[in-house]
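> example.struct
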């Protein structure tokens, strides 16, 4: 919402990139938090902070599951074009300055969108492009410096 994160998705897989055994996907939605720790107060939000009201968790879950069911055929298809096109229309990272934390190190760059393989494309300050398949990606807060 704006520049603040309302929800997050975490995925873990077992296997190799060309032979995935299984994928576990988890999602968290910030519902009723009025306050956040100082280290994320400028980057996180909740339904409550945005609306001033407590939202019915069951309704949010029902709408989320209904949307997942709607896109399930796209996920089961060999042609990911419809899903990829829909994602591009709603890609809030596109063009944003991001911080990427990977097991091999941390770096910053500008998000260029997803590759056709699903990796995040990041333009590095030196002009090169890096594909991010795994890591923690966050939008860098704007500063007035």
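> example.seq
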């Amino acid at each position: 919402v704006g520049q603040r994160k309302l929800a997050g998705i975490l995925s873990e897989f077992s296997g190799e990139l060309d032979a995935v055994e299984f994928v576990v996907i988890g999602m968290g939605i910030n519902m009723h938090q009025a306050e956040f720790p100082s280290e994320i107060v400028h980057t996180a939000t909740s339904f409550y902070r945005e609306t001033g009201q407590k939202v019915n968790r069951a309704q949010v879950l029902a709408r989320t599951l209904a949307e997942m069911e709607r896109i399930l055929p796209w996920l089961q298809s060999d042609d990911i074009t419809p899903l990829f096109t829909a994602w591009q229309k709603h890609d809030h990272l596109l063009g944003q300055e991001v911080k990427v934390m990977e097991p091999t190190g941390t770096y910053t760059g500008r998000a260029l969108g997803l590759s056709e393989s699903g990796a995040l494309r990041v333009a590095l300050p030196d002009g090169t492009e890096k594909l991010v398949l795994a890591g923690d990606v966050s939008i860098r807060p704007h500063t007035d410096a």
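> remarks
The radius of gyration is 17 Å.
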